[in-house]
UniProtKB/TrEMBL annotation, chains A, B:
<protein>
    <submittedName>
        <fullName>AcrR family transcriptional regulator</fullName>
    </submittedName>
</protein>
<dbReference type="InterPro" id="IPR009057">
    <property type="entry name" value="Homeodomain-like_sf"/>
</dbReference>
<dbReference type="Pfam" id="PF00440">
    <property type="entry name" value="TetR_N"/>
</dbReference>
<keyword id="KW-0238">DNA-binding</keyword>
<dbReference type="GO" id="GO:0003700">
    <property type="term" value="F:DNA-binding transcription factor activity"/>
</dbReference>
<feature type="DNA-binding region" description="H-T-H motif">
    <location>
        <begin position="40"/>
        <end position="59"/>
    </location>
</feature>
<dbReference type="InterPro" id="IPR050109">
    <property type="entry name" value="HTH-type_TetR-like_transc_reg"/>
</dbReference>
<dbReference type="InterPro" id="IPR001647">
    <property type="entry name" value="HTH_TetR"/>
</dbReference>
<dbReference type="InterPro" id="IPR036271">
    <property type="entry name" value="Tet_transcr_reg_TetR-rel_C_sf"/>
</dbReference>
<feature type="domain" description="HTH tetR-type">
    <location>
        <begin position="17"/>
        <end position="77"/>
    </location>
</feature>
<dbReference type="GO" id="GO:0000976">
    <property type="term" value="F:transcription cis-regulatory region binding"/>
</dbReference>
């Protein structure tokens, strides 16, 4: 009987893009316990075990790092709320919103930090936030044969913007205090409230 | 024919409370063209033609002045949205919301500055904002024989909180870009959306 010494796991060398993504994910995780203002280059460099110089190499500086973290989180949110390709319109909306709820539940504190930073006066972060929610709204209107059939009018777009604000408030508040609503109850409310809201439009 | 020299208008001496109120109203008006951060004691003293020392006497300091301005605006909002004593529940809700819409229209930029400050991380301002909207929500449940009859449950309160976020977003966005909706259209949407939203609750 021969015993083979287990060969050491080969050390994977990350590409610069993979390394950058890893740092952005770490940055977003740190937002769960720190406000964006507290999330310094120094803190991230320490947590990641890399030099400040390398951090500056990847992100240019503090503001560039913030924007990269927020953009990465926004892209992740957009990907996780992709509706399935097939199914009834309301089922597909429900699946997309389930992605949103699960994302917020999993990243509650970090998501709240981002909203606070985006709405509190940082114009570049606000632009990323606004662009993301506009892209989410666009999903209702893009050539999408199985999508929710709602007319693309300025008034409907105004209502979808407000409905997004309502859904964000509802899901964040529900995370703190579910008020007797299960995840399924919450999903029913946010899904059926969209056509109900559009039905309130005159004419 | 005798000509009487018109007597000068008697100079009214304001009480300290009236003077303080006047300063708060000036502060709120200045928020239409300045962010809360830009609204300094110096700027207000200059605009009001009084000394910085008197400003400190009235408000203690910058943070005290901010909080007093926001509290004054919140009290004003609460007063202007008081529903009439009589009428059908939905008519009374409509009248209360008309007060809200007209308040936001008249103070659009200032209101937006306050929301930004309250949601962006100033905890004392956030507390005033939250307390005000909780008081507005309480109106639906206080002993109010002609009020909208909705059950007082934690889930309904969760939904009213989210509905308020939706109404605020809708009215602020409508001020910038009305999307073909008249004031009456907007009022119809925000009024009828409350019972429509509560109807989405399961059970």
């Amino acid at each position: 009987m021969t015993t083979a010494t287990p060969s050491p796991t080969p050390r994977t060398r990350l590409s610069p893009a993979q390394r950058r993504t890893q740092l952005l994910e770490l940055g977003f995780r740190l937002l769960a316990t720190h406000s964006l203002d507290e999330l310094s280059i120094d803190l991230l460099a320490e947590e990641a075990g890399i030099s400040r110089g390398l951090m500056y190499h990847y992100f240019g500086g503090k503001q560039g790092f913030y924007e990269a973290v927020v953009q990465h989180a926004a892209d992740d949110l957009y990907a996780r709320t992709a509706p399935p390709d097939h199914g009834e319109p309301m089922e597909r909306l429900l699946a997309s919103l389930a992605g949103y709820v699960d994302y917020v539940v999993a990243n509650h504190a970090g998501y709240r930090s981002l909203v606070k930073a985006a709405t509190g006066g940082n114009d570049n972060l606000r632009a990323i936030y606004d662009t993301t929610f506009a892209a989410l709204a666009d999903r209702f209107f893009t050539a999408d044969p199985g999508g929710l059939v709602i007319p693309d009018t300025p008034a409907v777009r105004l209502l979808i913007h407000a409905w997004q604000a309502m859904v964000e408030d509802l899901v964040l508040t529900w995370c703190d205090s579910p008020a007797g609503l299960s995840r399924e109850d919450l999903l029913q409310v946010i899904t059926t409230s969209l056509p109900a809201l559009i039905d309130t439009l005159p004419g």
